[in-house]
Design goal:
Blueprint (H helix, E strand, L loop, with lengths): L5 E3 H8 L7 E2 L7 E5 L10 E2 L6 E4 L28 H13 L7 E10 L2 E17 L4 E12 L5 E3 L8 H10 L13 E5 L15 E5 H30 L1
Parallel strand pairs: 3-6
Antiparallel strand pairs: 1-7, 2-3, 4-5, 5-8, 6-7, 7-8, 8-9, 10-11
């Protein structure tokens, strides 16, 4: 699976080999955790992406609705369960504090999926959990988890991503609506991907819908093959231009 691939919930579950009914899933992978996020209107939690850094600010989750707690939005988000074990909030909070305190050499690695529409998700990539806090939202105390985008490399290594590499949610939502949830080349609704018209590596922007479109896997591959076939000619043209400039 590649960053910006669009998948169904069933495909998400298949990819993680787990029924992800919870939005927060600590240690569900062999070497990572999973967050399900949404910044859509009406989303149950106040997740957000900092536009200046690309960092994810993920809000903790409420306790379950029960007879004793008919309105979870009116009470503080829980750190522990009534039996004293850690909630998912508690597990992630402890991991963040251990990293800040030097008890962990590496931050918790978190794989993030973002909800685009009902039943439609987008793979957002890996993030590192670097900090956490408990804050007041004006009515109660909630958890905030701070994560920076990274690229996962071999042997557990990661490298930071430029803050403008990720496609912002609002751009994704605009493109999804504009393209009708279909490949712009063949109208397929299968194996879709958010594609940069001009690749990011070639100076294309992730920050505007003008440079982002929906492509199916077939046409995304055809575009990649076309770009690769042009590279030798681009190199030749560059060398020729340099020769003319020197002479």
């Amino acid at each position: 699976m590649n960053v910006d691939d669009i998948i169904s919930y069933a495909e998400l579950v298949h990819a993680e080999k787990a029924n992800l009914q919870k939005g927060m899933n600590f240690g569900i992978g062999k070497s990572y955790s999973v967050f399900l996020m949404s910044v859509r209107k009406g989303a149950p939690y106040a997740d957000q992406i900092d536009p200046s850094t690309g960092n994810l600010i993920y809000e903790g989750h409420d306790q379950h609705k029960t007879k004793e707690c008919p309105d979870p939005k009116s009470v503080d988000q829980p750190l522990t369960t009534p039996r004293g074990s850690w909630t998912e909030n508690g597990k992630f909070f402890r991991a963040a504090m251990d990293f800040k305190g030097g008890l962990r050499k590496r931050p918790e690695l978190v794989k993030v999926y973002e909800k685009i529409a009902n039943g439609i998700w987008c793979y957002k990539g890996f993030f590192e959990l670097v900090d956490a806090s408990i804050v007041s939202d004006g009515k109660r105390k909630v958890f905030k988890f701070y994560l920076k985008p990274v690229q996962k490399k071999r042997l557990g290594r990661t490298i930071e991503l430029p803050h403008n590499r990720l496609i912002p949610t609002q751009v994704k939502l605009e493109v999804w609506k504009r393209d009708g949830g279909k490949c712009v080349e063949c109208c397929s609704t299968k194996n879709l991907h958010y594609d940069h018209d001009i690749p990011f590596s070639k100076g294309g922007s992730s920050l505007t819908a003008m440079n982002v479109r929906l492509l199916c896997a077939k046409h995304n591959l055809e575009k990649s093959d076309k770009i690769m076939s042009l590279l030798p000619w681009v190199a030749i043209a560059g060398s020729f231009a340099e020769h003319l400039h020197k002479n």
